[in-house]
Design a protein that fits this description.
The longest helix has 23 residues. The protein contains three helices and seven strands; from the N terminus they run E-H-H-E-E-E-E-E-E-H. The protein has a single domain, classed as Alpha-D-Glucose-1,6-Bisphosphate, Chain A, domain 4 (2-Layer Sandwich). A seven-stranded antiparallel sheet has the order 1-7-6-5-4-3-2. With 144 residues, the protein is of the alpha+beta class.
């Protein structure tokens, strides 16, 4: 498996889907996918922005860095929780589809050099995206 590819169609505009994914990430990122269920997730706008988690004690855990910021159509970030020396790459595309938006996620080995470890990590990412994307989809319907 060279890449983990997942998609979801949400009933909102491309701009709204992008805003929910980025600006409101803390509202929908599942508690089961955080170091601490009470932490606050954040994604800083713009290339070089941090993707991270603020723990209740105030410590920050950086999980990645924004590599490409092209609102409302595309976001690319590195992802390195627990493996800063082996970041993977996540590309998220937001495409208008009739009265909805198709959100395509492509999670790849990136520049991590994981090599033979990638299939094992990819299987974990498949299961994670199967929980994260439905949470995101539900959040797109909860407000303007």
């Amino acid at each position: 498996m060279n890449a983990v590819e997942k998609s979801v169609v949400v009933r909102c505009s491309v701009a709204h889907a992008f805003r929910v994914f980025t600006d409101r990430i803390d509202l929908w990122w599942p508690p089961s996918h955080r170091k601490d269920p009470a932490s606050v997730f954040f994604l800083e706008a713009g290339e070089g922005g941090r993707f991270g988690e603020r723990l209740p004690a105030g410590d920050e855990r950086v999980l990645g860095e924004v590599l490409v910021w092209e609102p409302p159509g595309r976001l690319v970030y590195s992802w390195w929780p627990g493996a800063i020396d082996a970041p993977t790459r996540v590309e998220v595309r937001f495409t208008a589809e009739a009265e909805a938006t198709r959100v395509d996620v492509r999670h790849t080995v990136g520049d991590s050099g994981l090599g033979e470890e990638w299939p094992t990590r990819a299987a974990i990412f498949v299961r994670a995206w199967d929980q994260v994307l439905p949470a995101f989809a539900a959040a797109t319907e909860e407000g303007p």
